[in-house]
Amino acid sequence: MYDRILVPTDGSEGVERAICHALDLAEAHGATIHAIYVVNTASYAGLPMESSWDGIDEMLRSDAEAALEDVRRLADERGVSVEAAVVDGSPSREIVSYAEREGCDLIVMGTHGRGGIDRLLLGSVAEKVVRGSNVPVLTVHVADEAPGQPA
């Protein structure tokens, strides 16, 4: 049923739950995981020109590689193959574009499940992906709490 499963990651602690869910599906279906990290360059557009963009870019790329390495490690433990990519742009737009371009069968992504004013003020990448994707999207609730705290 699934051959290529896309898993967006931002490297946060909670996203591991979504990654593990995607890996469970990949194991069951013999699928390949496509892990993507989107460097949200739009959110850094307002930085003063004096800012060292090279230093910021280097830090963001380092974070991206660390997040993708976590996916590779978890996949290796289960014998699931992984293709990984770092892309620049708007997270929701890039996730949808990647899934369609690479022929992914499913997108599995974490969501904080915020509602009301939080969602209005913060927006929801997951919601935008669900609304904009022709590829089915499975959202997995990830907790905002610190590790060891009840969800």
Automatic annotation (TrEMBL):
Membership in a protein family: Belongs to the universal stress protein A family.
SUPFAM superfamilies assigned: Adenine nucleotide alpha hydrolases-like (SSF52402)
UspA domain location: 1-141
A UniProt-annotated Pfam family: Usp
Regions annotated as coiled coil: none
Lineage: Archaea, Methanobacteriati, Methanobacteriota, Stenosarchaea group, Halobacteria
CDD domains: USP-like
Name of the protein: Stress response protein
